[in-house]
Amino acid sequence: MKTIPVETTINGDSTEFLCQPDESLLDVLRDRLGMTGAKEGCGTGDCGACSVMLDGRLVCACLVLGVEAQGAEVETIEGMANGEELHPLQRVFVEEAALQCGVCTPGILVAAKALLEKNPDPTDTEVRYWLAGNLCRCTGYDKIIKAVQTAAAEMRSA
Amino acid sequence: MAFDAQAERNFKVVGTRVARPDGIDKVTGKAAYGADISAPGMLHGRILRSPHAHARIVSIDTSAAEALAGVKAVVTGADLAQPEDEGFADVAINCLARDKVLYDGHAVAAVAATSKSIAKQAIRLIKVDYAVLPHVTDVDAAMKPDAPVVQEGRALETVPAGMSQNVTTHCQFGHGDLDAGFAKADKIIERSFKTAATHQGYIEPQACMASLGSDGRGEVWCCTQGQYMVRANCAAVLGVEESQLRITSSEIGGGFGGKTSTFIEPVALALSRKAGKPVKIVMTRDEVLKATGPTISSSMDIKIGMTKDGRITAARGELRYSGGAYPNATVDMGAQAAFAAYDLEAVETVGWNAMTNRPKEIPYRAPGAPTSIYAVESVVDELCQELGLDPLDVRLLNAARKGTLSSYGPTFNDIGLVATLEAAKAHPHYTAPLGPNQGRGLSCGFWFNFGGNTCVSLNINDDGTVGVVEGNPDIGGSRASISMMAAEELGVPYDKVRTVIADTSSLGFNDITDGSRVTFAVGLATIEAARAAIKEMCRRIAKIWDIDEDAVIWEDGCAKPAGPNAGTHPPMSLAEIAAIAGNTGGPIAGHHEVNADGAGVSFGVHLCDTEVDPETGATKILRYTVFQDAGKAVHPDYVEGQMQGGAVQGIGWALNEEYIYGEDGRLQNAGFLDYRVPVASDLPDIETVILEIPNPGHPYGVRGVGETPIVPPLAAIANAVSRAAGVRMTELPMSPPRLLKAMTG
Amino acid sequence: MVRVKLWGSLRALADGEEWVEVEASNFKELLDALAEKHPGLAPQIKRGVSLALDGVIYREAWFTKIGPENEVILMPYMVGG
Ligand code: FES
Ligand code: FES
To answer: Would you state the CATH architecture of domain B23-31+451-596?
Structure first.
């Protein structure tokens, strides 16, 4: 199969890569660009571990083709902190033990950030429904929901 | 190692909620899990799997795959050793089948190629000629004398003659006169139950990168609950020496018992040996569900007699478990755990294991216990309903306590069940009002907990910081707990300690991260290693002060004279002592190696409110509270996390998760869409109440907490649903169609 | 002498006895003596057993001291998740 050149922007940096026409954006990020923050839990859009933003839309990177990133803005977990400074969601997740094994965490953080950008003051139920596409097998979600709310409150008062 | 006698120990670090050391890496995406590492020149491995539930392999033709450009190696079962030890032999034929495939998804051959897509293509070019055999996937069917035989000659000596060859294990536990006990009962209920196999459902599929040279030296990077277990399995399956294999455990994306075995590492090593290059294998979710460990499936009969004031007079259980296509001992543990929460005069539990054409069972949190306790707790609840008794009072009346002859043999010493039940009774949840179609369920749970083989090495660095090296992969924050215990013992701040997980060449053998053992056993070894380092520091300071070794004590991170007779020397801090280590005899370290025992059994009680929808059969969990004895909660956040996570896995088991096999013996729901684990919107908050009844077998009183929480949810929910729906549910999962059918008759 | 209790399904392999009395001062001696007295138990002992000593479960500790005053219960070897 012939590879296709793609020009895109990832976490604000313009990036070029070659990929095969049937290659997922997740494989491109992980295998070609060395950005392994997004995880593959299923490859079928059912777990959310691969969540990234594509032109401001929350997507499963396993269901997007690499070539679809052409001309788009991609945001991943690697771009969430500002240098040393963690995003409030990241900091609160550590402080409030909202992760155990942590493999779901990058996807959940990307998804939660997308939620708070749309809805800075969600109810618990809204958080639970928004994150329903992100599986976590370790925590039972309790501390995740609470951490998202703590971070949301902090961001509102900032 | 006994509980420290000091009455009320004033913990400074233990019991606080510090930030975990791996937190930042995990929230920024930097943490490296099994699939996150690549090597120059690395090949991609892929495995061909059987489409049949049961078939003889007539021939395998790999020539077309080998001829494909980019394919560097193809292996089959013939490339692996045939270990003599039965356990290793099972691992080997499960990694790559030899004569027969035993289940849908059984690995048959593997390729390594220069790209994922070439590997995928190559797999399709392997021609396997199968002679399909009759299959059996249901445990009751497998026990019938004329059932298709999964494997021959695997029965233990305890299995009576004349049974199906699928029956591998028979066990029986108990005491007392059952007939006399049942004769005293005012009410006897006897019920049969079935539970589906479920999967641990860790979000990170198994993944590894391996390289093995023709000299037998190899390296493996993999996500596992035990790097030493991987080493032993790989050495046996490849016929190489353990010293030549170095296994490094990656960050691990969940295990729950599911990563206590080996599926792909020996295959990757075999491919690498042939190809002369490192090989990476990452399982797909479909492969994880089809070929890695689900739990047992079960069929059970429970009979319990009770007086009208709630005393249990006799209890009997018969458990039939199937752990898939290989023998296993899970039913032993299920049978021992079944009635552990009760003080019984007459009790018997009988267990059977039968092989079926399903994947090899791998432990899942408290293996064997959730299902048997589900059945027992369901019958106890029904008796309470029938006799008009309060289910909590009945549990308290019959609760096992210190001095109770347990249903599995030993007499209990200090256990926390009564206190846990009392906490549940006092909690507002227990008396909160319920609405229409709502029900409240309650269940006790039990798990043994283990200690096991453990090595820890603790180094005092020259700048006064501390390094701890341990050998158990950290699944849920154990590096934090271990650092906390080291800091506590040494009297230094938590952030002065860094704990790392060793590869197999850097530290002696450690058992796998299982049996809720890490905080208990590694913690215990860490405390001992710290005490050894302290002893050495005191010895050196005694020399400087020119006093007796015993005249130096360790307090608040400093060596101090023990009393006025020891002189008026100013205390010397750990940092000061570390700085002059070179002058006083060289580097200071402590280490401890132990096969830890005394883990202390663990009990929990779960309370659950549900609402059932009479139109759809759907169940909503309204409120859920977990009560558990943690002995001493080292890091309360992660204890709560274990309790909440276990409860939610149990909720999934109770309501939705199941392995569904078709008539053809093939798994019909090998994906997260159809194998439905709980999502955030299915659940309420999971409230937790931690009790701390010190474990006499640990210096800080710690008990393992990881497994018990998955035990009670099955019955707690079944009881809540049965009460809400007005019909006794006896089969898991209680998925909407099944519940609707029960409600509409 | 130490009395050790066998679980139900082992009794058939030990002449139907529930409690077996053997001369032993630690677990290793106990297991050796059991296997010698009742060879039918040897395969299970070889595969692995746990022992509960006064209610505390030990998986493999051979040199754990035991005496006539202790409650000693043979249990299957246990694994966890
Ligand atoms: S890997 Fe993309 S949703 Fe699971
Ligand atoms: S923390 Fe392990 S899956 Fe979420």
So the answer is: 2-Layer Sandwich (3.30)
Indicate the pairing of strand B107-113 with strand B43-49: antiparallel
Tokens read off for B435: 């609405």
ipTM attached to this prediction: 0.98
Strand partners, B100: B56
Grouping H, G, I as helix, E, B as strand and the rest as coil, residue B727 is: coil
Tell me the pTM.
0.96
* Domain spans in chain B, listed from the N-terminal domain onward: 23-31+451-596
pLDDT, position B70: 98
Closest listed ligand to the CA of B476: 2
CA distance B589 to chain A (A): 30
Output the six-digit token pair for B31: 């943490």
- Among candidates B24, B582, B656, which has minimal Cα distance to A85? B24
Mutate to test the pocket of ligand 1, among A30, A40, A58 (most ligand atoms within 8 A of CB): A40
Query: CA-to-CA distance for B89 and A117, rounded, in angstroms?
Result: 55
Give the number of C-alpha atoms closer than 13 A to the C-alpha of residue B653, restricted to the C-beta side: 33
The C-alpha atoms of residue B542 and residue B208 are separated, in whole angstroms, by: 50
Domains recognised in chain A with CATH numbers: 4-79 (3.10.20.30), 88-157 (1.10.150.120)
Whole-number Å distance between alpha carbons of A87 and A93: 10
Q: How would you classify residue A131: left for phi > 0, otherwise alpha for psi between -120 and 50, otherwise beta?
A: alpha
pLDDT digits (tens, 9 = 90+) for B326-378: 999 999 999 999 999 999 999 999 999 999 999 999 999 999 999 999 999 99
The DSSP annotation for C2-64 comes to EEEEPPHHHHGGGTT-SEEEE--SBHHHHHHHHHHH-GGGHHHHHH-EEEEETTEEESS-TT-
Q: Cα angle at B517 between C74 and B285, to 5 degrees?
A: 110
Domains of chain C: 2-76 (3.10.20.30)
Pocket of ligand 2 (CB under 6 A): A 99-104, 136-139; B 203, 254
Scanning B399-522, the segments in alpha helix (DSSP H) are 417-426, 428-431, 478-490
Among A31, A46, A105, the mutation site with the greatest number of ligand 1 atoms within 8 A of its Cβ is A46
Among C3, C5, C9, most B C-beta atoms within 10 A, so best to mutate, is C9
d(C-alpha A92, C-alpha A89), whole Å: 5
- Is residue B26 within 8 A of residue A92, CB to CB? The reply is no
Task: Report the alpha-carbon distance of residue B296 to residue B273 in Å, rounded.
Answer: 35
E strand or H helix at B674: none
Instruction: Say which residue the tokens 């000629």 belong to.
Output: B129
Question: Residue B319, Cα to own-chain centre: how many angstroms?
Answer: 21
Burial grade of B735 (CB within 10 A; 0-12, 13-18, 19 or more): buried
Burial B289-321 (b: 16+ CB within 10 A, else e): bbbbbbbbbbbbbbbbbbeeebbbbbbbbbbbb
Angle at B475 between CA B471 and CA B481, to 5 degrees: 70
- Asked if the model's pLDDT at residue B745 lies above 90, the reply is no
